[in-house]
């Protein structure tokens, strides 16, 4: 496990990888604590753009994991980061929640429907018909169209609810246009993590998650180490049938913790 021992920053999916809903998965606390003790780093990477980093910091703290906003990257932040790299202080028509609006304002963007540089679609749980009408009109006029992530559904305690991908399809039906997408499985969200941690080399990052078609594919697309954990959605059968191949496969993050310790002890 020499290569695993060289990883300095772990990009971590949450649900199915670190936790299942309001329950911490076995070994997750030990894993995070060992990363800190051994001088390693971590970022929780989520496609959900309806909440900001503060929400996930509190969620992790409630589960017993101490972290800060510097340890969280949402697709909303990644989208703001990406657009800031293209045009700082741009004018944006944003279809998103108040949390996402706050994220973009904090990055220095102006939120407006008057001659915007970009239309940005997030997972908008406050979506209105008026927002759709304005957004579709701007998109038809040729304003550059960006979406935070492609997930069709968001899992909740009571079942699935329509996510950003469903809204993308609604807008496509009206305008015929598809957006540039930032979140997993696209590598732009991983590149945003790189900008968040510029001190590390490419080979010192690893993406860890339980979904082949989002988490692992994002790692593969970004050309970094990818680690599939079998504690959530994916099973070995899925790996055998998929053309997306992770660098490592473990039962869960508890196994990563043990393998890291072994690698460190043999240095």
UniProtKB/TrEMBL annotation:
Gene Ontology MF term list: metal ion binding; phosphatase activity
Gene3D superfamilies to which the protein is assigned, alphabetical: HAD superfamily/HAD-like
Cofactor binding, note field: Divalent metal ions. Mg(2+) is the most effective.
Keywords assigned by UniProt, alphabetized: Hydrolase, Magnesium, Metal-binding
List of residues binding Mg(2+): 13, 15, 210
Active-site residues from the entry: 13 (nucleophile), 15 (proton donor)
Residues annotated to bind substrate: 184
Origin superkingdom: Bacteria
SUPFAM superfamilies recorded: HAD-like
Cofactor list: Mg(2+)
One GO cellular component term: cytoplasm
Annotated EC: 3.1.3.-
UniProt xrefs under Pfam families: Hydrolase_6, Hydrolase_like
Function: Catalyzes the dephosphorylation of 2-6 carbon acid sugars in vitro.
PANTHER family registered for this protein in UniProt: 4-NITROPHENYLPHOSPHATASE-RELATED, HALOACID DEHALOGENASE-LIKE HYDROLASE DOMAIN-CONTAINING PROTEIN 2
Family membership noted in the UniProt record: Belongs to the HAD-like hydrolase superfamily. NagD family.
Record protein name field: Acid sugar phosphatase
């Amino acid at each position: 496990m020499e290569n695993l021992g060289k990883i300095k920053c772990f990009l971590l999916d949450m649900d199915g990888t670190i936790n299942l809903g309001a329950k911490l998965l076995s070994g997750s606390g030990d894993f995070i604590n060992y990363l800190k003790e051994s001088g390693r780093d971590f970022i929780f990477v989520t496609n959900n753009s309806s909440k900001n980093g503060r929400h996930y910091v509190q969620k992790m703290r409630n589960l017993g994991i101490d972290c800060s906003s510097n340890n969280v990257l949402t697709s909303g932040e990644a989208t703001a980061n990406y657009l800031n790299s293209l045009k700082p202080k741009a004018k944006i028509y944003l279809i998103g929640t108040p949390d996402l609006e706050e994220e973009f304002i904090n990055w220095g963007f102006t939120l407006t429907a008057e001659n915007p540089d970009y239309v940005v679609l997030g997972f908008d749980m406050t979506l209105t018909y008026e927002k759709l009408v304005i957004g579709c009109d701007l998109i038809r006029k040729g304003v550059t169209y960006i979406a935070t992530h492609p997930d069709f559904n968001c899992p909740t305690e009571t079942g699935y609810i329509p996510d950003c991908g469903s809204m993308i399809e609604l807008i496509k039906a009206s305008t015929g246009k598809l957006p540039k997408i930032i979140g997993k499985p696209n590598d732009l969200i991983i590149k945003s993590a790189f900008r968040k941690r510029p001190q590390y080399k490419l080979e010192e990052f690893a993406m860890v998650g339980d979904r082949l078609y989002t988490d692992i594919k994002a790692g593969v697309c970004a050309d970094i180490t990818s680690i599939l954990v079998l504690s959530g959605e994916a099973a070995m059968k899925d790996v055998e049938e998929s053309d997306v191949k992770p660098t490592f496969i473990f039962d869960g993050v508890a196994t990563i913790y043990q393998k890291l310790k072994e690698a460190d002890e043999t240095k």
